[in-house]
Amino acid sequence: MLHPESATFPAETLRAALAHWFSAHGRVLPWRTNPSPYAVLVSEFMLQQTQVATVMPYFVRWLEQFPTLHRLAEASEDEVLLLWQGLGYYSRARNLHRAAKVVVERFGGELPSDPAVLSSLPGVGPYAAGAIAAFAFDRPVPTVDANIARVLARLANVKLPVDSPAGNRAIWALAASLLPEKGGGRLHTSALMELGALVCLPKKPQCLVCPVQAHCRAQEPETLPLKAPRKATVQLTECAAWILGEEGVLLERQTGRRSGGLWSLPKLRLPPTTAPLFQTVYPFTHHRITLQVHAAQPSDVLSAEQSWFAPERILDEAALPVGHRRAVSALLAARLGLPNSGSPLPAVVPEQTSALL
Ligand code: SF4
Predict the structure, then answer these.
(1) Is 44 in the active site?
(2) What is the CATH number of the domain that holds 17?
């Protein structure tokens, strides 16, 4: 439940304190210094489930290769996935690509500013729609990400799980109640989000230096926000084939939501009879995936999804999930003496183990 006095938050005083603190302590981030609608759109897709430090180099490379929304809309899916490689959650890359095409086709290349219209774009949910409207167009509209949810749940001492329908409604209502009346959405939302990132930390909130401490009603802030129980981790094993022929390394195009459009080592069709050449363990959402790579022979007829890649060019031409990229790189180094570059891009989450067996 919300604190009984939740309706009496001094919104203007809170906003002023947040803005003052943000002007002194807010980080300089590329999408803040250049809050063009396209740059904000790209940053919002990249930042979903991913930390700022991880996103930064990807964001810079992305704007170098796709400097405009039109250029992105014209790109091939292979170009898009290759540049996204290592950032994970590839459905975001495909949705960003599709969203760029929709904006070009339906809106003449101009990103709309209305959150309701933004929500109609592929991959743009309520949070991203509000964030894009606020950051790119300075609109005073509510948005709630994990940082804002934590700050607001603590400020108002919300004792409902923030990921439950009732808790979610309470947090969004609180976010709306604190907005400026006209404009100023960019500064207000940035400050609230930054407070969650730098001061109102998940484990050790820095209440002594918090600019809104005088108004905070949290009694045990580190216990908030409440969340519904997490899904248990699911262990999965993937067995893949290492097929090195005269034409190069055989890869297979993946389908489905998880990694559709990416290339990977082909799935082993039959249970392996030999020890794996390489093994690595990596997390994916609530899964923990063990990838085992076994030596295999190609079938007589390749499927339509399979293709050969020259060993020297494979890592530059094929977008691979992190575990498969690491496997290809390690095996090319072991078998052909090529440099083991691993993944030159920072992975979203580190692999647990990586070894030639
Ligand atoms: S006083 Fe502490 S718990 Fe309250 S908003 Fe500030 S950092 Fe968070």
Answers:
(1) yes
(2) 1.10.340.30
pLDDT of 350 over the 60 cut: no
Shared domain check, 242 and 288 = yes
Which domain range does residue 162 map to? 10-223
> Is 199 a pocket residue for ligand 1 (Cβ < 6 Å)?
yes
Task: Locate the DSSP E strands across 211-342.
Answer: 234-242, 244-245, 248-253, 263-264, 278-284, 287-295, 306-309
Whether 216 lines ligand 1, by a CB cut-off of 6 Å, is yes
As a whole number of angstroms, the distance between CA 229 and CA 347 comes to 27
Query: Is 70 exceeded by the pLDDT of residue 346?
Result: no
pLDDT > 90 in the chain, percent = 76
Q: Position of tokens 């090529």?
A: 338
What is the tens place of the pLDDT at every residue in 154-204? 999 999 999 999 999 999 999 999 999 988 999 999 999 999 999 999 999
Query: Do residues 194 and 25 make contact, with C-beta atoms less than 8 angstroms apart?
Result: yes
For ligand 1, pick from 207, 217, 220 the residue to mutate: most ligand atoms within 8 Å of CB. 207
User: CA 59 to CA 255: how far, in whole Å?
Assistant: 26
Give the pLDDT band (50/70/90) at residue 286. confident
Q: Are residues 205 and 94 in the same domain?
A: yes
Q: CA-CA distances (angstroms) from residue 47 to 176, 221, 273, 277? A: 22, 25, 42, 35
- Cis peptide bond N-terminal to 225, omega within 30: yes
Q: Is 351 left (phi over 0), alpha (psi -120 to 50) or beta?
A: beta
Using the 3D structure, point to which of 179, 204, 223 is the last residue of a domain: 223
Q: How crowded is residue 93: how many other Cβ atoms within 10 Å of its Cβ?
A: 25
Query: Could you give the 3-state DSSP secondary structure of residue 211?
Result: coil
Q: What percent of the chain has pLDDT over 70?
A: 92
- What element of type H or E holds 240? strand 234-242
Domain co-membership, 177 together with 61: yes
Question: Which residue's structure tokens are 């009346």?
Answer: 181
pLDDT band at 257 (very low <50, low <70, confident <90, very high): confident
